[in-house]
């Protein structure tokens, strides 16, 4: 089977997907809360409403940028993660009541996870405020996918996404606002 590509930010997208596979239940709950869900922020939180507005334009942005297939591919990966408990539990535990109770938080986190995944794929096509809005909750909980795992911290993530002072020194994946490897 052919491995999907995600445009110029393939490496960052793959880092995000790798991080997704290794999220602990607390991180999943924090992402779900950021989405304004049942356990999340208030539905009248301005960021929740603003994300809805940007989400409404993502397909058009992806089509215009020639990345509709990349968006579909990363969306499929997120959907697979959301419906699976095999990554959280050892063999023999998956499919038990203990594993099934973890599906709810994953489903609640999907909008924020998709926002982050789409933002990474479309990073160079989004305005800075759109990127911050869509990727911010993910970065607050997990870190920036634009920075290698060893060098992740908030300041490095901000510099990496915005092409800040250190971002031009060593691009991590050859595309977008990739930052220092570190």
Structural features:
globular; disordered C terminus; 182 residues; 8 helices
Number of domains: 1
Beginning-to-end CA distance, first to last residue: 32 Å
- Rough outline: globular
Profile the largest sheet: none
Assembly level? single chain
Which range does the strand content fall in? under 5%
Q: What is the helix fraction of residues, given as a range?
A: 55-70%
Quick summary of this structure?
With 182 residues, the protein is mainly α.
List the helices and strands and how they pair.
Elements lengths: L9 H12 L3 H10 L11 H19 L3 H15 L14 H4 L2 H19 L6 H14 L12 H9 L20
Helix pairs in contact: 1-4, 1-6, 2-6, 4-6, 6-7
Q: How would you describe this protein?
A:
The protein is mainly α. The protein has one domain. The protein is 56% helix and 0% strand. The protein has helices at 10-21, 25-34, 46-64, 68-82, 97-100, 103-121, 128-141, 154-162. The termini are far apart. Mean pLDDT is 76; it is low at 88-93, 150-162 and 164-182.
